[in-house]
Write a structure and sequence with these properties.
There is one protein chain. 67% of the residues lie in helices and 0% in strands. It is built from 14 helices and no strands. Helix 3 packs across helix 5. The two termini are 25 Å apart.
């Protein structure tokens, strides 16, 4: 279980740190900004993080983001085709995968580009089928953090609120006990981070022992409450708070969504 926690946190930290400042293509849809982002992604190609199915997490996020954005901005596709030969091999591979996903393999002829086979990364088409709540209802919590990253990528490529609503619906639907413990874990993370910066002891993790014990006690009364469920909720909650803190537009949108539908206020009734 601790290994599971470590993996989820590592993926979440990597994803947020890589994309938080670079995404929001929906806010900056120019071709120049698009190329800049693809270059940034290409430079991280050696940083491999696997998802729960062993697939490359970064490849999935990248292809979701780019296919979402290019479907909303199809004029950029023609610009890519015209300028394709001037890109580096790493950039070519990323763009070719996205274009094959959207237009099929025939686009490779237009690009005059050959590679054995496109990487089988997820695309925006796959993400539109995701429901975090459905995973939770089935008691399948492990895929939730990865799929949350994919929903963020889809939102950043499109600016469509439905992806935010998907995340908010999941968080708000989790039991109050789970949400309360998740908030407390994040509070301790924040305190540990501040203390680490002040004391230069950045490798001192927060103590969750009492929270784990509380989760175990709760699970005896309600078998639907588990440590795995708590960790998944904590990672998703942390990603939402990080995105809201790092992107004013996302925070404004979430506040507006909650105002329209108060049931999506995931912090409601949480008392720390």
């Amino acid at each position: 279980m601790l290994k599971f926690l470590s993996t989820l946190v590592t993926c979440a930290l990597f994803t947020i740190s890589l994309y938080a400042a670079e995404l929001s293509l929906y806010l900056k849809p120019s071709f120049i900004e698009f190329e800049k982002l693809v270059l940034e992604i290409a430079q991280t190609k050696n940083n491999k993080i696997r998802d729960q199915n062993g697939k490359d997490h970064i490849d999935n996020i990248t292809n979701i983001l780019l296919t979402a954005f290019l479907q909303r901005n199809p004029t950029h596709i023609e610009k890519i085709i015209i300028q394709f030969n001037r890109y580096s091999q790493d950039v070519k591979l990323i763009l070719a995968n996205a274009l094959v996903t959207i237009r099929g393999k025939d686009v490779l002829k237009e690009l005059n580009y050959n590679f054995s086979s496109p990487k089988k990364a997820l695309s925006i088409i796959d993400i539109d089928k995701i429901s975090l709540v459905d995973f939770a209802k089935k008691g399948d919590f492990k895929p939730i953090p990865d799929n949350t990253d994919y929903l963020w990528a889809a939102f950043e490529g499109t600016g469509d609120d439905k992806y935010l609503i998907n995340i908010l619906t999941y968080l708000a639907s989790e039991p109050l006990e789970i949400r309360t413990l998740a908030f407390e874990m994040i509070n301790r993370d924040t305190i540990a981070d501040i203390l680490g910066k002040l004391t230069d002891e950045k490798d001192s993790p927060p103590d969750y022992k009492d929270i784990v014990e509380c989760s175990n006690q709760l699970s005896k009364k309600d078998r639907s409450i588990s440590l795995e469920r708590l960790i998944s909720c904590k990672v998703v909650l942390w990603s939402a708070m990080s995105q809201r803190n790092g992107n004013k537009d996302i925070n404004t949108r979430i506040l507006s969504i909650i105002k329209t539908n108060p049931k999506l206020d995931y912090s409601k009734d949480v008392k720390l």
